[in-house]
Design brief:
Elements (H helix, E strand, L loop, with lengths): L1 E6 L3 H13 L15 H12 L5 H19 L5 E5 L5 H7 L12 E6 L2 H12 L5 E6 L2 H10 L7 E5 L9 H14 L5 E7 L4 H8 L5 H17 L8 E8 L4 E8 L3 E5 L4 E5 L4 E8 L3 H10 L2 E8 L5 E8 L4
Parallel strand pairs: 1-4, 2-3, 2-5, 3-4, 5-6
Antiparallel strand pairs: 6-13, 7-8, 8-11, 9-10, 12-13
Helix pairs in contact: 2-9, 3-4, 6-7
The structure holds N,N,N-trimethyl-histidine.
The site of N,N,N-trimethyl-histidine (AVJ) has 11 residues, from strand 11.
Length: about 325
């Protein structure tokens, strides 16, 4: 194993300040969900993936474990894997299969892209351990990480770009399409995109998944304010916030909000701003769009990809698509 850190600056700390400045005073008040993933946030997200009420990760894991050969073969047995938003790397491990098996057909290099340094370190250790691959980590946002990773492509190298976990669900539909077009431009014909999307399901199941009885998702959400208090000297009274998850059927998305139960004045010195919240005011922290299979494939086609195969688990929870890159750059 050899691990290379492709980007060592703290890209996330700097962008939290920028995000707070840019989004918190908008109407409605909002903060981008990428801010949820500091060390504690990443650990809380890992805990969410173990909750019986959050089916996303389990369904996708089953699909990858069951179909790993088909997925890799559909991707043309790539030389290089790039995973955007790798988290702890467990899905990549499933795709690679038992130790050493990954190298049987030639994955030589793995590029991991995530905003969380903890996730990158964990994933790099896990996938590099006992495998003859070069692992390069990029602490960057998706587009920058994808571009940086693809820029080091060797002549003739075939890339499979992995975007799993329904991370695409955090983009609104126009944003998703634009993002996919950007990914398309970093790839070449012969490359493949393997992408996971969570499917629409009954409202009560979605609400349990995003407002679980153990309160882990509530903690995950509130940690964003904890982070602003700690890193930016913010004065949010965390105890006065409620976690709220709701299903917006018109937009086909679950939304997470933080609602203040009382009026509060908040200073955030490192962002140079202050704000006043009334009782009942909320901050919108995440959208998680849910798709149906044909709508998702249409979006891929309109973004320059040709869906080649797809897999849906037997409970109809989750969709995994392998799409090839169409035409010339
Ligand atoms: C990591 C963005 C796919 O939207 O389901 C889990 C994050 N938020 N519980 C999702 C999340 C609340 C998750 N993604």
């Amino acid at each position: 194993m050899s691990i290379v850190n492709g980007q060592t600056v703290d890209a996330t700390g700097a962008s939290l300040v920028a995000d707070v400045r840019h989004f918190l005073l908008q109407s409605p008040r909002q903060l981008p969900s990428r801010g949820l993933y500091d060390e504690l946030g990443s650990s809380l997200f890992d805990a969410i993936c173990h909750l019986p009420w959050y089916p996303v990760t389990r369904a996708e894991r089953r699909l990858i474990a069951t179909h790993r050969h088909e997925i890799l073969s559909c991707a043309g047995w790539p030389d290089r894997l790039i995973e955007l938003g790798c988290g702890n790397g467990d899905k990549l491990l499933l795709l690679l299969g038992p130790h050493r098996a990954s190298t049987e057909r030639g994955v030589r290099r793995i590029d991991l892209v995530d905003v969380s340094p903890l996730a990158l370190a964990t994933a790099a250790r896990a996938v590099g351990d006992d495998r003859d691959v070069v692992v390069v980590t990029h602490q960057l946002r998706y587009e920058d990480g994808a571009a940086r990773a693809a820029a080091s492509r060797l002549p003739g190298e075939r890339i499979a770009l992995l975007f799993l976990g329904s991370n695409i669900g955090n983009f609104d539909p126009p944003g998703a399409r634009q993002f996919l077009e950007t990914l398309r431009k970093t790839l070449r014909p012969g490359d493949c995109l393997v992408i996971g999307a969570d499917l629409v399901k009954p409202e009560h199941e979605l609400l349990l998944a995003y407002d679980d009885p153990l309160g882990v998702t509530a903690a995950f959400n509130k940690n964003l304010l904890v982070r602003i208090n700690r890193e930016m000297g913010g004065t949010f009274d965390i105890t006065a916030f409620d976690h709220r998850a709701l299903w917006n059927a018109d937009e086909s998305r679950v939304e997470m909000h933080l609602v203040s139960r009382k009026p509060q004045h908040i200073d955030i010195p490192a962002a140079g701003l202050s704000l006043d919240l009334r009782a009942g005011d909320s901050i919108w922290t995440e959208s998680s769009y849910k798709y149906d299979p044909s709508r998702f494939s249409d979006m891929l086609r309109r973004s320059g990809f040709a869906p080649a195969r797809h897999w849906i688990d037997h409970e109809g929870q989750f969709l995994l698509v392998a799409a090839s890159v169409v035409g010339d750059q």
